[in-house]
Amino acid sequence: MERGGNRVSRGMIPLLAVHAFNEYYRQERKPPVTAGLLITNTLIYLRPAFLNNILPALDEVWFNPHLIVKNQDLRRFLLSAFYHMGEPHLVYNMLSLLWKGIQLENSMGSIEFACMVAELLAMSQGITLVLAKGLLLFDYDRAYYSEYSVGFSGVLFGMKVVLNSLSDNYTSVHGVIVPTRHAAWVELILIQLCVPGVSFLSHLGGILAGLIYLRLRRSYSGPDPLTTIVRKFIGILRWPLRYVQGLFRFRRRRISGSGTVGNRTGRNMSSTWRCPACTFDNSMWLSMCEMCGTEREGNGLSYTRPSNRIRDLSLEELRRRRVERFSR
Question: I need a labelling partner for 244 at 20 to 30 A (CA). Which of 226, 234, 269, 297 fits?
């Protein structure tokens, strides 16, 4: 997250779009939630004409602990994460989201990933608010309680903790080789030292939110409660759609797999022909027996009496033909 400043267009968003397109093109499964988050953050920053009158101004959604507590302002609490100060701020966060989101969503599934993002958002913002309020006891009100900040990086730090939690490898954080599971802490310190104007509490809140999420997640043997609720809710919404689809679903006419063996009683004689070798009733559209592979005799519209060669086929020969037929 960054504090204060003016937007400066540097033409970086088209490069972000190209990079995102290339990454998604390479993926066998295209993660929809990650794409939705990328598009949402970018559109909020660009503020196209059809959204300009709907979206609140940046000054109305700054994350400011004092104003949130004083006015009980949930809009600042939630929306501030989706606003960015400038293109470098937006592009850096979205590139990080793209890399982390693709890996997490493909491994967790879209519903669980979406629930995780919502939980990390609420927890990171809440922890930041509690930390800023708690530091008033130490007379740090100017430094943190009245601080203005925006950006998605708190959630990204939480995602980084979750992504790296099971790794025993080492990684490079701005040139520093550290254990992967501790990379978020090292990045927190390095960013604070090297990048002026960032919100330390927001990043710290994201890391703590990731740790709490992992602790809560490990306490459940199955999906977390929020994921379960969302899945059931989606199932309820889909039920009327499935019902309507069932009413208007027309089965395609089957050309195979509809025959019987033995007695033809009760069947439409004109719609099938009986194999002279194995007595399997095949569709009139087939020129070869589906069961044993014997070719249909005659001109294709009717069949003649079976020859002695066909009638003398052994059971072993019929079995061989069937195996050969279905192994093609």
Answer: 226
pTM value is: 0.68
Band of pLDDT at residue 307, cut at 50, 70 and 90 = very low
CB-count burial class (<10 Å; 0-12, 13-18, 19+) for 221: exposed
Cα 253 from chain centroid? 35
DSSP one-letter code for 61:
T
> Helix or strand or coil: residue 299?
coil
Q: Is 242 helix (H, G, I), strand (E, B) or coil?
A: helix
In the residue annotation, 9 being an active-site residue is answered as: no
153 a catalytic residue: yes
* Residues 50 and 128: beta-carbon distance below 8 Å: no
Q: Which of 149, 153, 199, 202 is catalytic?
A: 153
d(C-alpha 184, C-alpha 157), whole Å: 7
